[in-house]
Write a structure and sequence with these properties.
It is built from four helices and five strands, in the order αβαααββββ. It has 160 residues and is of the alpha+beta class. The N terminus is likely disordered.
Length: 160
């Protein structure tokens, strides 16, 4: 009977170990490496740097810096959307992991797990929840520089 119980519990224990519920990670202690089935070359490092800069510009509410990391044809609309967002929220963004899903000479798909924490918000701002999300960034080369063409957020886990 004891063996049967262990056999029945084994898949549950295995799955719970593999699918850990995300929890807050201190940005001062987070270290990540770039993963994936591709050799980590200069192009990949440069594309990841663009994402790091993008998140840092967002934290600092540096609109020009932020817009410099995305493709030119998305800048005007993005600026309109972000202006009020930057006024309402102070956020902290932390990259937790990076995986290269696809890579060609002028296009790349990166999966980035990132944590976003609300540091402050305007009194009348809608509630914004702390979370860890998977961001799938499509990166393209524009005039020899990697830029974010599109970001799709998936698998959002709320921390509060």
């Amino acid at each position: 009977m004891r063996k049967l119980i262990l056999i029945l519990l084994a898949p549950i224990l295995f799955l719970s170990a593999c699918h850990q519920v995300p929890s807050y990670q201190d940005p001062n202690t987070v270290e990540y490496s770039i993963e994936g089935d591709y050799e980590i070359d200069q192009d990949i490092k440069e594309a990841v740097k663009v994402i790091e800069k993008n998140l840092k510009y967002a934290e600092n509410k540096d609109m020009n810096g932020y817009l410099s990391t995305i493709v030119p044809d998305a800048r005007e609309e993005t600026e309109k959307e972000l202006a009020s967002f930057f006024e309402e929220y102070d956020l902290e963004h932390t990259i937790l992991s990076v995986e290269v899903l696809e890579k060609e000479s002028d296009i790349m798909l990166l999966r980035v797990e990132q944590q976003t924490i609300v540091l402050d918000s305007a009194d009348d701002a809608p509630a914004y929840r702390n979370h860890i999300a998977e961001a799938n960034h499509t990166m393209i080369k524009v005039k020899g520089m990697w830029m974010i063409e599109e970001t799709i957020m998936t698998d959002i886990f709320y921390l509060d």
